[in-house]
Amino acid sequence: MTFFETLSKLMSKNKISIKQLAETLNIDESEIQSWKDNHTVPDIQVLMLLSDYFYCSVDYLIGHKTKRKVKEISDKPKRSINVEDYTADQREEITLWSNILKEWEDYCIDKPSKTQATKDFATIVALKYPDIQVSTDILYRKKRALKKYGICGLIDLRGGHNKNRCSIPTVAWEIFLDFYNNLVYYDKMKCYNLTVDAIEKVRPDLLPLPSYNTFIRKLKKELHSDNKIISDK
């Protein structure tokens, strides 16, 4: 069941119209209609509002269903699901990966080989979102994290919610700068990918690394402090 099908079911059960829902969420009716037409999932803030409004979990809204034994809950790492605990970038990442995982599921439905379909889908997503790292391994890793932690599993929360501190491990940042400073003929995305490869070999416990955009924001901030200018390449 898609997100909008679940939402429609809830609206019908509670006799809520699109107009009434739009007024409740303080958004345009066209935005709600776009969830159906474009097969998209709203951002985490809207999902949390819907969750509170319909008295259901966010996992249920996005079609994620798991069976958990009570005795196992205390053994699992705890992750907060409060929106205010996350930065704007983290909320954006949750929304992005929620959409990608749903698109992946839909893409594989009618394919004879899910393995090949997943490889093809990873290629499509990599082209669609050139600023994020996507592979079949990452797709499955994100899916497992979603199953284990819920939506907060879609971001890396190692080190807690330090909103004003950089989440890039020091060793990863040093490796990235080494590539950036010494391999000037590579673009920044290539430097990021080389960094991920290097970390996978020397410190796999640090994976997955923060996003490419996180590295670039830190790079621009540091170079700006040195009065240097870099391109967006």
What does this structure look like?
This protein has 233 residues and is mostly helical. It has 3 domains: 3-61, 434 Repressor (Amino-terminal Domain) (Orthogonal Bundle); 83-154, no CATH class; 170-225. Helix content is 60%, strand content 0%. The chain has helices at residues 3-13, 18-25, 29-37, 44-54, 58-61, 70-73, 88-108, 114-128, 136-149, 170-182, 188-202, 212-225. Helix 2 (18-25) crosses helix 3 (29-37) and helix 10 crosses helix 11. The longest helix has 21 residues, at 88-108. It is globular and about 60 Å long. The chain starts with a helix and ends in an 8-residue tail after the last helix.
In short:
The chain has 12 helices and no strands. With 233 residues, it is mostly helical. The model is unreliable at 67-81, 157-166 and 228-233 (pLDDT under 50).
